[in-house]
Amino acid sequence: MRASKPIPNDSALHEGETTQTTCGGCELLCEDLSVQSIKNRTGCTVADKWFTPNAIPAETTIDGKKASLHEAIKVAATRLLSAHRPLLTGLASTTIDTIQIACRIADCIDAAVDANAHDNSFLTAPTTIRVGKVSADFEELRDRADLAIFWGVDPSIKSTRFIERFIQPKLHDGSRRTISVGMTPAIAPSLHNLHFPVPEDQLISLARLVDAQLTQKRVRDSSCDLRDIANQLKNSIDAARCVGFVSTKTVETTGLVNWSLSQLIRSLAHQKPCFEIPLNQSASLGGGNLAGAGAVCTWRFGSSGAIPLASSSGSMFLPAETDAQRLIKRNEIDCIFIVGRISPQIKELLTKSSDPKSVIHITDESNQTTFENSVRLGCASLSDSTKGSMLRSDGRLVSLRPFASACVPSIQNILNELLHRIAADVRNEGST
Ligand code: SF4
Question: What structural domains and CATH numbers belong to the chain?
Fold first, then answer.
C-alpha cells in the first residue's frame, strides 16, 4: 500500500490550475512549479527533496513494530499525557490549520513549544523585534529595487530559487545592480554584480561606518579596507533609486549583526526607498512554514516559540533558553512530539542523545530513523496531497495545491483524532 500516489487527481486540483502547484520546501513557497517539472526535477535542489515521493509509505509503528493507526493514536495519547516535560516541535512542513491543532494539544499536555526557528535561539531576539525592521515583500524587491545588497550571504541561498525569481527578472525602467557583502558572493562577480569579501565579525562595524557616512556622523577609527568598502557602498547607494537589503541567517548568536543592519536601513529609509528582505530560514529545515508556526504560536501563546509551557492564557518567551535544540541538549524533556518532517538538527540531537526520550512523530516520510520508545504515525504526503495554507516569510498567505490522491489520513485528521483522544483521557481521569 502506498501513502500517496503521484497520479494527477482532478478532484485535488482547482479549476484552471491543472499544471501548477505550490512548493512548501522553503520559506519562498513558490507557486509557479508545474506538476510536470516535479516529475522531471524542478531545478531547485530543495524542492526536489521536498517532493521526493516515498518509495515505501510511512508506516505506523509502536516501538518499531507495525501497528494500526487507531492503536498508535491511543498509545501516543497515553505517552503524551504521562510525560513530565513534553516538547512540541517540527511544524514547519505543515499547514496553519494543522499547527493550530498541534498547539491545542500542547496546551492540553503542558508542553514546551518551539518550531526550531533561528530567531528563537538567540538572546537578543526580543531586542531585534523592538528595534523593528523596514521590510517589504519579495515582489517589491523584484519590481522596485535597482540595487540589491546581500548582507552576510548564506551560501544556501543558492540552492533555492530566490535569485532566479526575485533578482534576475529585469526591472521595467532600467537595470539592477547587486552587491554581495560577505565571504561568498550570492551572484558571480561582474560589472553589475560586485562582491566585497567581509568576514561576519566585521559586518557590525561596516554597517555603522556606512550609517555614519550617510548621516555624516563621526565614528571611531576603523581599518582602511573597511572604510574603503563603506565608501564604495555609500557611492552605490547614492546612485540607486531604491535599495533592497537581503539579509540571511548569521552564525553569530548575539543578534547584533541583524540589529546594526536594521539601524542602517532605518536611517537610509529617511532618504530614499529602502527596505530589508530578511531570509532567516535555513533551507534544510524540512519545510517552509516557519513563519506560519511563529504566527500561530504568537496568536495563541504570545510568542513565536521558545515557550517553556504552552498556555493560551499567556506563556513566557525564553529565547536562547527554551528553544528546541537547547531543551534536547540539556536533557530537560522526556518526550518529544514532532509534527511533520523532522529537521536534520533535531534528528541529529535525538540520535546522539544519551538520555532516552519518548518520541511521538507524525510524518509522511518512510525513510526516517525509528527511535527507541517511539510511536510513528504515518500520514499522507505533505508535499503532494495536503490541502491548506502556509505563510511565506514576508507575511503573504499561500495556498497549497495538492495534485495527488492519498489513501491514508492526512496529518490534520490524525492530529484531530489525537486531540480528541487526549481530551477524552483527561475527562476520564478527572471523573475517577
Ligand atoms: S525555492 Fe523553496 S519554495 Fe521555491 S521551489 Fe525551491 S524549495 Fe520550493
Answer: 57-117+285-431 (3.40.50.740), 125-279 (3.40.228.10)
Q: How many CA atoms lie within 13 A of 270 on its CB side?
A: 8
Ligand 1 center to 27 CA (angstroms) = 8
| Residue 10 scores a pLDDT above 70 | no
Q: How much is the pTM?
A: 0.90
Kindly report the protein residue whose alpha carbon is nearest to atom 3 of ligand 1. 29
Identity (one letter) of the amino acid at 74?
Answer: K
- pLDDT tens digit string along 43-80? 898 999 898 766 677 899 999 999 999 999 999 999 99
Q: Atom 2 (ligand 1): residue with closest C-alpha?
A: 26
Count Cβ atoms below 10 Å from residue 193 Cβ, excluding itself: 18
From CA 369, how far away is CA 168, in angstroms rounded? 40
Instruction: Give distance in angstroms: CA of 33 to centre of ligand 1.
Output: 9
Report the distance separating Cα 199 and Cα 210, nearest Å.
16
Beta bridge partners of 399: 389
Testing ligand 1's pocket by substitution, the residue of 20, 21, 22, 26 carrying the most ligand atoms inside 8 A of its CB is 26
Place of cell 558572493: 185
pLDDT value at 189 more than 90 = yes
Contacts of 123 (CB under 8 A, 6+ apart): 253, 254, 255, 319, 320
In this structure, are residues 423 and 414 in contact, taking their beta carbons and an 8 Å threshold?
no
Cβ pair 217, 234 in contact under 8 A: no
Test site for ligand 1: of 31, 38, 160, most ligand atoms within 8 A of the Cβ = 160
DSSP string covering 187-209:
S---SSEEEE---GGGHHHHHHH
Strand partners, 278: 247
